Amino acid sequence: MKQDNSIKLFEKAKTLMPGGVNSPVRAFKSVGGTPVFMKRGKGAYITDEDDNQYIDYCCSWGPLILGHANENTEKAIIETVKNGTSFGAPTALENQLADLIISNHSYIEKIRFVSSGTEAVMSALRLARGVTGKSKIVKFEGCYHGHVDSLLVKAGSGLVTFGESTSAGVPVSFANETIVLPLNDEEAVKSCLEKLHKEIAAIIIEPIPANNGLLLQSHKFLVHLREMCTQYNVLLIFDEVISGFRVGFEGAAGLYKIKPDIITFGKIIGGGMPVGAYAASNEIMNHVSPLGSVYQAGTLSGNPVAMAAGIAQLKECLKENFYHDLQRKTDMLVDGIKKNIEEKGYEITIYNIGSIFWFAFSDMTHLTRADQINAGKMTLFAKVYHYLLENGIYFGPSGYEVGFVSAAHTEEDIDTTITMINGAFYIAMQ
Predict the structure, then answer these.
(1) Global pTM value
(2) Three-state secondary structure along the chain?
């Protein structure tokens, strides 16, 4: 595979940006080699600066549920840009996107748009603290909630531990406001809330943890979280930046029929543009400025171009059988990979929910916690990754990242991908 242009661009980028990238995982450090610089996408395909073409399962890390340059989304963006890119004033498009979401989501009544998933989470935490008057937050090991200072923490020893920062620049005092618990552990949650509920404002979780592998939680555990939060007057926040509008229009909340107190959105909500949001009941959202005392603002919040893109994409998601068809294609991909794994006897397991999938070099059928991931096997993923790259299949460059199927993927694309993944596993397992 020719990479001359990507190599030249990366060498230049390293003189301009830290590590040559604007988001760390793009640097290819976990898989080795040179990052591939992309210049064009259409449907299920992306093309790099050396004119290599790939079937794309990264989908910009999840937002592109319709694929690249979807005709309706593209048209909405172009028509909106003609009227201006930003006003710093309200627009009708904000109303339209908000109404579209709220009227088709059973668990929220008001929404506030921001510019990223991280910003949505940061704002949701501030809101939870403002509503409850308490300061501590509970998160779970293996769940990523953006680069919010107080959530860049890891677990210590024991069931209830205060966080230790995993990033320079985060004061210990910030990390100390976060309690880290193991996923899928009802006793840990119960013990924590019994002891510290008077200090805890909220529990935040990815109901479908998909930033550190795909760590599917039991429905029973998620119900337990809801019950414990209600009992101890602690708010439950579902971080649905990935799962929102991905596993169904109502996300994991709708899939599991669990009502969180606050939901954060991102990725799909923006149609490929930088958009995030947080949403809740009228009672909770009325604490947000200018109605209430919880301040949050953003110069580009509700940006008209981003709103138009989100409207166009979510309208497509609401069409009859959209999620059924997406599930059918994902099942086709997963079943094809599973069949080969079983025939060859490989110690590999593929996990999926909705149109999200992930494979791990493990024989565990129920992998629910971050500490169950075998980090030593990530060298095998690097082999798989580069084989696929050479053969026209693009995934996110890390074994901890999930893959996404889009509406643009065809059955032919899926068949090709199965063949290539099977070949990659054969090479890796030699």
Answers:
(1) 0.95
(2) CCCHHHHHHHHHHHCCCHHHCCCHHHHCCCCCCCCCCEEEEEECEEEECCCCEEEECCHHHCCCCCCECCHHHHHHHHHHHCCCCCCCCCCHHHHHHHHHHHCCCCCCCEEEEECCHHHHHHHHHHHHHHHHCCCEEEEECCCCCCCCHHHCEECCCCCCEECEECCCCCCHHHHCCEEEECCCCHHHHHHHHHHHCCCEEEEEECCCCCCCCCCCCCHHHHHHHHHHHHHCCCEEEEECCCCCCCCCCCHHHHHHCCCCCEEEECHHHHCCCCCEEEEECHHHHCCECCCCCECCCCCCCCCHHHHHHHHHHHHHHCCCCHHHHHHHHHHHHHHHHHHHHHHHCCCCEEEEECCEEEEECCCCCCCCCHHHCCHHHHHHHHHHHHHHHHCCEECCCCCCCCEECCCCCCHHHHHHHHHHHHHHHHHHCC
